[in-house]
Write a structure and sequence with these properties.
two-stranded antiparallel ribbon, Tumor Necrosis Factor Receptor, subunit A, domain 2, phosphoprotein, mainly beta, repeat, rod-shaped, host-virus interaction, transmembrane
Length: 200
């Protein structure tokens, strides 16, 4: 009796294996999540998974506990914690957290948000202009204060520029020149006028 053997290389089955794996991974639709190779229906926003589905039962869901939320259909077994608007980060609460939305924060007065790509998570105190500078742009909840240097002939305490006093226009003399942070110092009283009387 003659028996014929045909050798089949293992690589021949590889494409079939890959196709099967990809097919299994791609079977869950947008309203389902995959768990242990099973596609289960997602829970609605504001809910979390209590029990995953199986061959006989569908997913069971519970409402999110207090101070937690889910804002999209999901397969989470725990809802997400609500963000806390901490005053130590320059924040206060603008909109309270709900079961379907996170807390919305805003900067405290005198602060501005430094995280513009998402809900404000941190804020910093507005810069204070130094003496010799003035406030070019007042800070807002989204931008810092912009300071500039006062022009020559003026001074400031860090708020706005004031022109140096002209002592001569007041009938006085200059005792001390002004600087970028202080005014001119003028003589007290009216200046002494010496009148020359020609001799006869």
């Amino acid at each position: 009796m003659y028996i014929s053997y045909t050798f089949i290389h293992p690589s021949t089955f590889l494409p079939l294996l890959v196709i099967k794996i990809v097919f299994c991974m791609a079977t869950c639709n947008n309203a389902e999540y995959e768990i242990n190779g099973q596609c289960c229906p997602m829970c609605d926003p504001g809910k979390q998974v209590k029990n995953h589905c199986d061959e006989y039962t569908s997913t069971t869901c519970d409402s999110c506990p207090a101070l937690t939320f889910t804002n999209v259909p999901n397969g989470f077994t725990k809802c997400l914690p609500c963000f806390v608007c901490d005053s130590s980060n320059g924040l206060r609460e603008k909109q309270a957290c709900t079961s379907i939305s996170d807390t919305v924060c805003e900067p405290l007065p005198g602060y501005y948000c430094v995280d513009l790509l998402s809900n404000c998570k941190k804020a910093m105190k507005h810069s204070t202009c130094s003496p010799g500078q003035y406030i070019n742009q007042t800070g807002t909840e989204f931008s810092d204060t912009v300071c500039d240097i006062c022009p020559d002939g003026s001074y400031s305490d860090g708020t706005f520029c004031i022109l140096h006093t002209k002592c001569e226009s007041l009938g006085k003399t200059t005792v001390k020149a002004g600087t970028e942070i202080s005014d001119v110092e003028c003589s007290k009283g009216t200046p002494y006028l010496q009148i020359l009387i020609p001799s006869i």
